[in-house]
Write a structure and sequence with these properties.
There is one protein chain. The chain is of the alpha+beta class and 277 residues long. The protein has six helices and ten strands; from the N terminus they run ββαααβαββββββααβ. Among the domains are: 56 residues; 111 residues, Protein of unknown function DUF881 (Alpha-Beta Plaits, 2-Layer Sandwich), CATH 3.30.70. Strands 5-4-9-3-10 form a five-stranded antiparallel beta sheet. It has a three-stranded antiparallel beta sheet with strand order 6-7-8, with helices on one face. A hairpin with a 2-residue loop joins strand 7 and strand 8. Keywords: Coiled coil, Membrane, Transmembrane, Transmembrane helix. This is DUF881 domain-containing protein. Belongs to the UPF0749 family.
Length: 277
């Protein structure tokens, strides 16, 4: 008689259940009776829920935004640089060329004067006496440039009468710069002498120039080539036209063979700077 290792059930062979040494294997769906294996679950991906991930993402977005902003500013700067002269008319370009030529001529003239003075000192028997003479000669020109001495000569007188709108400080400063570029050697606005340290700012009642209040009408006196100074103000599309159109003001320019500027500036006292002996 043959003994069966396991009984038949409905014609099916059911193998015996074999338990592992440690008992049942933990894990979902793991059963030795069905022959299934443990399921190894993958770790869930990191989300933005963690603090470190949020900080990293925000940092990346901030860096990308700054790079985009920097690139945009660079493109705008390059575009403005290229188009700064493209929008000017032929007359404005000619005026800029004349102003640049005038400045170059003045620099060359000053260079020649300094060279002659240096050669005069080197060839003189009494170098100290010659140096004192040249210093006294330069004192007059330095006093005029620094505003310490009054001056007179050919030039123009500009009168600006405000309308409904007030002329702002930026536009008035542009007018002074245009006169300087056109070769103005001495400038005064109302009762204030214009020097290298002159500033303009807006005030509730008008303009402030070097701490002094200015009110309309504004009178600007400039010594230099009358034709060049007048063209700098009245050229089409220039600062004179801007004052008329934008601020509805009256602008008149008069040439004169004798423009007298009596306004002077007191010498500035320096707290830290000293002369070199």
């Amino acid at each position: 008689m043959i003994k069966r290792l396991w009984p038949r059930s409905n014609g099916q062979v059911n193998p015996p259940s074999i338990q592992p040494r440690g008992g049942r294997v933990r894990g979902g769906g793991d059963d030795t009776r069905t022959g299934s294996f443990p399921i190894v679950r993958r770790k869930p991906p990191r989300t933005f829920g963690s603090r470190a991930s949020r900080i990293k993402a925000l940092t990346s977005l901030l860096v990308a935004f700054l790079c985009a902003l920097l690139g945009f500013g660079y493109v705008i700067q390059v575009h403005n640089t290229k188009s700064s002269y493209e929008g000017l008319s032929e007359e404005e370009l000619v005026r800029l060329l004349d102003e640049t030529s005038t400045q170059v001529d003045k620099l060359e003239e000053r260079k020649s004067q300094l060279g002659e003075q240096l050669r005069s000192i080197q060839s003189s028997a009494d170098k100290q006496q010659e140096a004192a003479r040249i210093a006294k000669q330069n004192q007059v020109s330095s006093g005029i440039l620094s505003g310490a001495l009054p001056a007179q000569g050919k030039g123009v007188q500009i009168t600006i009468v405000e309308g409904q709108d007030r002329v702002d400080a930026a536009t008035m400063f542009t007018l002074l710069e245009e006169l300087r570029n056109a070769g103005a050697e001495v400038i005064a606005i109302n009762d204030t002498r214009v020097v290298t340290s002159t500033y303009l700012k807006d005030d509730n009642h008008g303009l402030v120039c070097d701490g002094r209040k200015l009110v309309s009408p504004y009178t600007i006196k400039a010594i230099g080539d009358p034709d060049a100074l007048q063209n700098a103000v009245q050229i089409a599309g220039g600062v004179g036209s801007r004052i008329k159109v934008q601020f509805h003001a009256q602008v008149t320019v008069e040439q004169s063979n004798s423009v007298r500027i009596d306004e002077i500036r007191r010498p500035q006292r320096y707290q830290y700077a000293q002369t070199v002996e």
